[in-house]
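input
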Amino acid sequence: MAGDVTPSRGLTALRSTNLIFAVLATLAPIAHVLELPNKLALDAPLWLAVQQHLYRGWGPLLGGPVEIVALATTLALSVMRRRDPATWRLTLAAGIAYAGMIAAFFAFNDPVNAALNGWTPASVPPDWRDYRLRWEIGHALAAALSVIALAAMLRAWLIERDRTRLETR
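output
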């Protein structure tokens, strides 16, 4: 790849798809971080209502599939870039970050979601703030990892773009 003058159509299409999903995978976690100060001010019944109604379907319909496609396209790109150490290392770092996002969801967010699905405003446990903090930590971690992954994928793309420009002169 480092010696190729122009990237293959497959690489170009995969890279474009990956960058689209990299951006999409960053949006929801960043939105959660931006909401954090206001959500920390909510009382238990209102926080529970937000969790049970506003976020219903986000994970299975949007977040999960987007993160999985971002990881899958990143892994495919790592195979295609394996002979180019500069872009391969960046792609590998992004893949590790996406895997970390998925692991953070299962370590932090999924247990909280499972617990609060059975709660009612009258049955919120006294330690509900611990659940809220765990849920927010999971999303903050996902936001940081998604930004790392997106930055790595953009940097790899810039390396390929600049190399192509130099080689076509």
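quick obs: Residues 9-167 form one domain.
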